[in-house]
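Residues determine shape. We examine one folded chain.
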Amino acid sequence: MDGLVSVVIPTHNGQRHIAATLDSVLAQRHRPLEILVVDDGSSDSTAEIVRGYAQEVRLIEQERRGHPAARNTGIRAAAGEYLAFLDHDDLWSPDKLELQMACFERDPALDLVFGHILNFFSPEMPPEERRRMAVPLRPLPGLLQGAMLARRRSFDRVGLFSEARPVGDFLDWYGRAMLAGMNIAMLPETVVYRRIHASNFQRLNKNQHRLYLRAVKDLLDRRRGVVGS
């Protein structure tokens, strides 16, 4: 279908925030949309909540394999000409896809379009915990999967996310996209509101930061290899 955007949302135990996330996708001005939620082995009521959106959202359930594998499951099932991604606790601005699709229309040579992100503290987070966190609360260039819209054919040139990387999988993918010569635009508008809360994945997985650093090192090594070749 021409102009169809497939939105892939991986989730694991996302019952607290998944409804707000889905509502922000359904509020998009752009149509047509295909929304795929991949429940990665949740043990809470996530799947039941998503089923409440059955007419507008497709639920795919799988055993726990990690969020890169969940994204890949959604990608394989997606039918859209464009691919978008969103974490189960973040929100889109209502004009996110509209702005990005207009950018593609202005420049047919583009492969990927990003926008800015804005961090916000989830309302349930206590003030004392907020004060302990050094979180920028101003719009920032969003080189994150949630801020990206990709042509499907361009995404396929780069390939799926690395399932060997529980941390740094998008950095790895973006590095491969750069080496593939993707044409990229960065919109000045804020398109993603990134929720900061007590159970953010990165905060629960501080012991895996070395894997993130490994992803950075691998990216730099690949770049050096291309430059030196």
In short: The longest helix spans residues 209-228. The mean pLDDT is 89.
